[in-house]
Structure prediction request, 467 residues.
Amino acid sequence: MKKLKILLSIFLSISFVSQVFAEDGPTSFADLAERLMPSVVNISTTTTIITNSNPFPGFKFPPGSPFEDMFKEFGTPQKRKSAALGSGFIIDEKGIVITNNHVIQDAEDIVVRVNGTEEYKAKIIGADPLSDIAVLQIDSNEKFIPVQFGDSDKARIGDWVIAIGNPFGLGGTVTSGIISARNRSIGLARYEDYIQTDASINSGNSGGPLFDMKGNVIGINTAILGQSGSIGIGFSIPSNSAKKVVSQLIQFGETKRGWLGVRIQVVTKEIADVEKLGEPRGALVASVAENSPSDKAGIKAGDIIIEFNGTKIKEMKELPKIVAQTEVGKTVDVKVWRDKKEIVKKIKLGRLETSEDFAEEKKEVEPNLQEIKSLKITVRLLTKKDIEERKLPNQTTGLVIINIGENSPFSNLNVNDIIVEAQKKKIKSTQSLEKIVETTLKSNQKTILIAIYNQQNQRRYIGIKLD
Prediction:
């Protein structure tokens, strides 16, 4: 009898736990998806790309030949239309649409499809490459069904979310998952504080919304990890970071970010020990721009900014985002650690976009050319500008071929081809390619399989026979 009571107690406990989990998890997303679908749009853009065709197809001059450049100049300019797909969502019944900047960048024509069938032309109200956010206006007098931004700060790891978008051109696709992590930085943008989710996000989902279970937008789907599609790791711009940018783009057509005028670095444990800071925190001022707000207020190189406008700075990466979101012209208290004690400076913020510091940062940096002697090629690292201009996936890494030497194993490739993989491994530096080649030769193999983007930006696999 006693054993029966114990078994009954265990059974009731399991039943109770199962019931709790069943109540917490949604039985279906159907009602929510049906309500939200009319507010999510598919975006298609077209861009004209001009290339010079070879006047002698099938014939290739030896690398370095004086005729090579001459006949390139005589090539006939060819125009072709390049199409791109993305997603977005409506936030105003007048047809204001939010999407990613990279979805519409350099677009000549933008078409927004609502409810899967109705197509409208759209124009750009404002776009911000630094946060990768753009605002569009649908060209129509019709009233649309909007959705609202939610409070992304209340979103917790483990919360259910759904993503709706246009992956691979398959509009009206709904996927579900949970919030996997918060405050992620992946090196794509200046201001990063991504929500990570395992809701399936693929190419074409960019700019689409990430919804909470109340139907509020808590994120703008922006990036995926991996080039071959969703592997359960997607990233979204938090709604609280996006709202201020969106508001400024609608009001001014541009952003107006606060600016301190300092270059900062991480406070390591060793620096914290030397400065008697107790623990690594804040942002170490590496240099101060001349005549900047910080310079005028008396901030010096070596100061550690530990609090800004009442907000404690725990990590260096927090400071740029907080400063950028603060009103231009506002005077704030900045607490710094100097000579092993706290002091407070009052700083009147400038505007980042009009600062000399920002103008210098935007200047194009001369690419660093590197020769791989074993392969007889000269390459440089792929840049963000290359990715934007050639419409490549956001996370693409690789090497751009600048020159191909005589008797190079890469002689069947072309200048400006991009090497992105070797032996199915991503290429992130010249060293990574050299290491793969060295390992292959040591294994007595004579051929490596590489993946490239050619001059038409088509991805191809090619077998390269090594000497």
